């Protein structure tokens, strides 16, 4: 009888305990019905596992005719972008001030602003990656600044599209 009471007490206590931590990656359904792993979502834990610094990092932006470096901002959106690297993005010209392309998955938002300068890397909405090659303004709600390009962006200043590659600098 005493053994039964101890066993029931142990079961009661274990039912109130928090669940044990899992070593398997978490998953979340994406809008398209697919499931994204923590690695695909670019969580801070994943970024550290990939060796990506949680402080601003330098990336390389390359195309057939140019290689530029950029420093990413120290914000959640830039860290999520860094976790997606390396990337290849088809960019198109928009309003003769920027090249814009769609990221493979949504990036978290953050503080937005409507002004940009030459070399600003931005996020419009939650998936549109933008490289500004002129100075100007965008309508509200604005862009999340992802970083700043160093170098000559004049090769982007044309009405045509370009395919770029983004990767972490060595």
Helix and strand topology:
Blueprint: H1 2-16, E1 27-29, E2 35-37, H2 38-41, H3 44-49, E3 58-62, E4 67-72, H4 76-84, E5 87-94, E6 98-102, E7 115-116, E8 120-124, E9 128-132, E10 136-137, E11 144-150, E12 162-168
Antiparallel strand pairs: 1-2, 3-4, 3-12, 4-11, 5-6, 5-12, 6-9, 7-10, 8-9, 8-11
Describe this structure in words.
It is built from four helices and twelve strands, in the order αββααββαββββββββ. It has helices at residues 2-16, 38-41, 44-49, 76-84, and strands at residues 27-29, 35-37, 58-62, 67-72, 87-94, 98-102, 115-116, 120-124, 128-132, 136-137, 144-150, 162-168. β1 and β2 (35-37) form a beta hairpin. It starts with a helix and ends with a strand.
Keywords:
alpha+beta, 8-stranded antiparallel β-barrel, two-stranded antiparallel sheet, 4 helices, 12 strands, disordered N terminus
Provide a short characterization of the protein structure.
With 170 residues, the chain is of the alpha+beta class. The chain contains four helices and twelve strands, in the order αββααββαββββββββ. 20% of the residues lie in helices and 34% in strands.
